[in-house]
């Protein structure tokens, strides 16, 4: 198959880990007889440096012409002085909005060989393998009004949690589709005892469920979900929730696996052009030091192969290589203990390619 992949490395360790994804994809293309064309665009701080804005129109154009998008990370202290509307993060928010990337999918899997790195007991981590589906383009982060008022904006402030029924339906549908291909269980997280938007969410979940007789639907209040995620995380298969609840719960869940450097994600649109990125950020504290763990980015590439291109075998090959290398005890610094000799980013990339 011939596929064009837009690579947006962004800032900080984004550049270093993107290199790993590209090298791994190049080997996969050779092994399986595909042709991957990599195009590259500026986003975030590096776009501000070179073009004055965090999402230049040519980057958007490049994305629209691709079959799938890969993003490293955006941001860093260098751009702290930029006005709010020109921050690196704005580039990513604008990209999500422009491309209709409404569903953020974050698999959370506890690797058996990494459980020593988790602050949780082995018995809690046993069988942890779930997916968080977070709504990404609505809710409190985008609702209007969002403003301050009173003397110079000092006296009151408002944000608005707004959803249309259709927005809620499409994210719940994404969750049921996902559950149908997994263990057939959806946990819908809301605050229906307090919020009107949550009551609409709950009703919509029941309506969508009617189309999936084999999938079990459970409703859970967000405060309880926050507790259950650390008390008994193995109970979950697919957890679906609105934008801000999802933001908070997915960071909470990431702690289960031991390192941010292990977690991939995808952001899905309705038109088939999806984006894949690691859950971690630009990690300014280690940027440029060849220390970053490239596995979250490489596992994001595997998600792309499977979801965007239907390349199941190819995706499995990448995931197998990651498992193989971890099982052999090879680790980057974020997963190494004090006395170990951690691999550099480049060395880890080489190990994965070797394992393919
Ligand atoms: P940003 O604002 O871009 O999110 P941040 O300062 O919040 O930047 P993160 O990237 O979120 O930094 O990382 C949080 C911590 O986890 C940092 O100490 C970072 O070094 C570490 N970390 C994140 N990703 C990785 C990785 N891939 N490999 C190793 N360490 C990582
Ligand atoms: Mg961060």
TrEMBL record:
PANTHER family: 3-ISOPROPYLMALATE DEHYDROGENASE (PTHR42979:SF1)
InterPro entries assigned: IsoCit/isopropylmalate_DH_CS, IsoPropMal-DH-like_dom, Isopropylmalate_DH
Top-level enzyme category: oxidoreductase
Organism from which the protein derives: Metabacillus sediminis
Cofactors, names only: Mg(2+); Mn(2+)
Compartments where found: Cytoplasm
Keyword flag Aminoacyl-tRNA synthetase: no
Keywords tagged on the record: Amino-acid biosynthesis, Branched-chain amino acid biosynthesis, Cytoplasm, Leucine biosynthesis, Magnesium, Manganese, Metal-binding, NAD, Oxidoreductase
Name the UniProt record assigns to this protein: 3-isopropylmalate dehydrogenase
E.C. no: 1.1.1.85
Record: residues binding NAD(+): 76-89, 281-293
């Amino acid at each position: 198959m011939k596929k064009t992949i837009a690579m947006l490395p962004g800032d900080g360790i984004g550049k270093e880990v993107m290199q790993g994804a590209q090298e791994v994809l190049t080997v996969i293309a050779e092994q399986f007889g595909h042709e991957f064309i990599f195009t590259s665009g500026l986003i975030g701080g590096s776009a501000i440096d070179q073009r004055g804005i965090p999402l230049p129109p040519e980057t958007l154009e490049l994305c629209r012409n691709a079959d799938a998008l890969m993003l490293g990370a955006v941001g860093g202290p260098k751009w702290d002085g930029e006005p709010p509307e020109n921050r690196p993060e704005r580039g990513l928010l604008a990209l999500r909005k422009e491309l209709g990337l409404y569903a953020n999918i974050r698999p959370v899997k506890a690797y058996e060989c990494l459980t020593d790195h988790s602050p949780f007991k082995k018995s809690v981590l046993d069988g942890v393998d779930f997916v968080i589906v977070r709504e990404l383009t609505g809710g409190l982060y985008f609702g209007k009004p969002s403003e301050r008022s009173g003397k110079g904006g000092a006296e009151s402030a408002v944000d608005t949690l707004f959803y249309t029924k259709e927005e809620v339906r499409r994210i719940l549908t994404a969750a049921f589709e996902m559950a149908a291909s997994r263990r057939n269980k959806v946990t819908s997280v809301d605050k229906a005892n307090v919020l009107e938007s949550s009551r609409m969410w709950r009703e919509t979940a029941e309506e969508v469920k009617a189309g999936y007789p084999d999938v079990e639907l459970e409703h859970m209040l967000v405060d309880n979900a926050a507790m259950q995620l650390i008390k008994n995380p193995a109970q979950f298969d697919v957890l679906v929730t609105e934008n801000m609840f999802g933001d908070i719960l997915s960071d909470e869940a990431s702690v289960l696996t031991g390192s941010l450097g292990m977690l991939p994600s995808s952001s899905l649109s309705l038109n088939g052009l999806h984006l894949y990125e690691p859950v971690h950020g630009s990690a300014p504290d280690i940027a440029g030091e060849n220390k970053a763990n490239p596995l979250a980015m490489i596992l994001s590439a595997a998600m792309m192969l499977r979801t965007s291109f239907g390349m199941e075998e190819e995706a499995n090959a990448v995931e197998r290589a990651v498992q193989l290398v971890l099982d052999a005890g090879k680790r980057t610094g974020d997963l190494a203990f004090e006395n170990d000799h951690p691999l550099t980013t480049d060395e880890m990339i080489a190990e994965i390619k070797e394992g393919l």
